[in-house]
Design goal:
Mean pLDDT: 90
Strand order of the largest sheet: 4-3-7-6-5-8-9
Helix content: 10-25%
Order of helices and strands: EEEEEHEHEHEEH
Number of helices: 4
Shape: globular
Structural class: alpha+beta
Length: 165
C-alpha cells in the first residue's frame, strides 16, 4: 500500500505501482464508444499511461491538456489517459477542449486496472478513484518508467517521463 497525500493529508492506495522491468498486466478498459480496449490493442507501440482521479478536477484537466500537446509530437507512442470517469464524461471533456491526440480509457465498471496496478485510492474523499501516476511501457509491454505523484494536487514530472521516451 502506497502512502500519498491529498491536500497534505495522508491517503492510501490498494498497493504499489508495478516495478520497472516488469510486464504491464493485461487490462480491459472502456473506450469512449463503450467498446473494450486491451493491452494487445496497442502491441508494437510505446505507451505513456497518464492515470488520474477525474477529468473534473483542475489538475487532472491541466495534465490531460499537457499530455495531448506532448502526444502530438511523439512517434510510435500512444498516450492513454485513464481514469474512473464515465467514458461519456471523458469524451465530452476532450471534445469541448479540442483534445484529439490522446486516447481516453475508463476503469469505471470494475476498478480492476486500479487494483491490478496498486492505484485504487482506499480512503479520503477520493476513495474509489485512481491515484495520479505515469507508467511508460515499451513496444513489448515492459514497464520502463513509473511515477506515482506523491501529492495528488500536483502535476506529474513531464520532463522525467519524456526523457524515457
Amino acid at each position: 500500500m502506497a502512502s500519498i497525500t491529498l491536500g497534505g493529508n495522508p491517503i492510501h492506495t490498494s498497493g504499489e505501482l508495478p516495478t520497472v522491468g516488469s510486464k504491464l498486466a493485461d487490462f480491459k478498459l472502456v473506450k469512449e464508444d463503450l467498446s473494450i480496449a486491451t493491452l494487445a490493442d496497442f502491441s508494437n507501440t510505446k505507451l505513456l499511461l497518464n492515470i488520474f482521479p477525474s477529468v473534473e478536477t483542475g489538475v487532472c484537466s491541466a495534465a490531460l491538456r499537457k499530455f495531448n500537446e506532448i502526444a502530438g509530437g511523439l512517434s510510435n507512442t500512444k498516450v492513454l489517459c485513464i481514469s474512473r470517469d464515465l467514458p461519456l464524461a471523458q469524451k465530452r471533456f476532450c471534445g469541448a477542449e479540442g483534445l484529439k491526440n490522446v486516447i481516453n480509457l475508463s476503469d469505471f465498471n470494475t476498478a480492476d486496472f486500479g487494483k491490478d496496478n496498486g492505484l485504487l485510492i482506499l480512503d479520503s474523499i477520493f476513495a474509489g478513484l485512481l491515484s495520479r501516476s505515469i507508467i511508460i511501457v515499451d513496444e513489448n509491454g515492459i514497464i520502463t518508467y513509473t511515477e506515482q505523484v506523491p501529492e495528488i494536487g500536483n502535476e506529474p514530472n513531464y520532463e522525467a517521463a519524456l526523457a524515457v521516451l
